[in-house]
Design brief:
The protein has 2 helices and 3 strands. It is of the alpha+beta class. The mean pLDDT is 82.
Length: 70
């Protein structure tokens, strides 16, 4: 399927069997999938903590990653 995050608290999900989600619920699905696919319990906890703090803090910064680093 296809899973993407769009902005803060928004996302889109399209699963192979036709299920489609959008908005906050799709964003939560993206976070869950992202956490589950990480290797190691420590990485999962650190990432979950980082995403939670960034979501709750709402710094207003853009955190866009485009292309490969130089």
């Amino acid at each position: 399927g296809i899973v993407a995050t769009i902005g803060r608290g928004g996302g889109v999900v399209q699963l192979p069997r036709g299920l489609k989600l959008k908005g906050f619920l799709a964003w939560v699905a993206w976070v869950a999938l992202h956490i589950v696919t990480l290797t190691g319990q420590r990485n999962r906890l650190a990432t979950l903590e980082n995403l939670s703090v960034r979501y709750l803090a709402g710094t207003g910064r853009l955190n866009v990653i485009v292309g490969d680093p130089p």
